Amino acid sequence: MNADQLLDLAPVVPVVVLDDADTAVPLARALVAGGLPVIEVTLRTPAGLAAIERIAAEVPDAVIGAGTIVSPEDAENAQKAGSRFLVSPGCTPALREAMAATGLPFLPGVSSASEAMALLEHGITVMKFFPAEAAGGLPYLKSLGGPLPQIRFCPTGGITIDTAPRYLRLPNVGCVGGSWLTPADAVRAGAWDKIEALANQAAALRPAG
Asked: Residue 1 and residue 206: Cα distance in Å, rounded?
């Protein structure tokens, strides 16, 4: 699987922040059952790596990845935990090299044309656009499609179930990332049926054609 293929697996990638690794497996099972197999667990909390490890071991239908990769060590640790892809909020030359060295598909974060072009110089054509809404949202991404039509994006940051379809209609958007699928109160309460229902709703967002 390469980064381009990753974007085609599902219209929405749940961006998950977990405080307790014990919730990782039932959460992942609910998302997969709802039709969203690609799951990004962020490394924003100490539970992140353990959560990835458990999902990789116990939920074979999940395509588990690590988000908030901000250092070469993060990339290495995420690979060891069983991540199948990596996502960073931004990118530096050292981080790009470290993510590439893992051999895993990765989505380096960009928020400007210059950042995107810098990655393009290294043959990278699939990127995360972050923070999507704060960095210009739909109009900005649409504008980038003119001079940089070869780049595909996964916009993440501030996107909702209501705005996601508009992003997905852009020709340079392969999928979107969203945190609305795993509300903190639902995760704490173990409301897996609710999360599965949210995933099912999001899985139906892929536009026709």
From this structure: 20
Residue type, 77: N
Contacts 24+ apart (CB under 8 A), 190-194: 190/23, 190/26, 192/26, 192/27, 192/29, 192/30, 193/30
**DSSP-assigned letters across all residues of 158-194:** S--TTTHHHHHTSTTB--EEESTTS-HHHHHHT-HHH
Q: Is 194 tagged catalytic?
A: no
Q: How far apart are CA 122 and CA 93, in angstroms?
A: 10
Give the pLDDT score at 206: 74
Question: Quick one: pLDDT at residue 207?
Answer: 58
**Catalytic residue check, 142:** no
For residue 188, the model assigns a pLDDT of 94
Measured from the Cβ of residue 171, the count of other Cβ atoms closer than 10 Å reads: 10
Beta strands per DSSP E along 38-87 = 38-42, 63-67, 85-87
Which residue do the tokens 């490394």 mark?
Answer: 43
Question: Which residues of the chain fall short of a pLDDT of 50?
Answer: 208-209
Please check whether residue 167 is in contact with residue 173, taking contact to mean a CB–CB distance below 8 angstroms: yes
CB 157 within 8 A of CB 134: yes
Tokens of 66: 């690590």
Structure tokens at 83: 């991540």
Which tokens belong to 139? 């109009």
- Choose, from 80, 128, 142, 196, the residue flagged as catalytic: 128
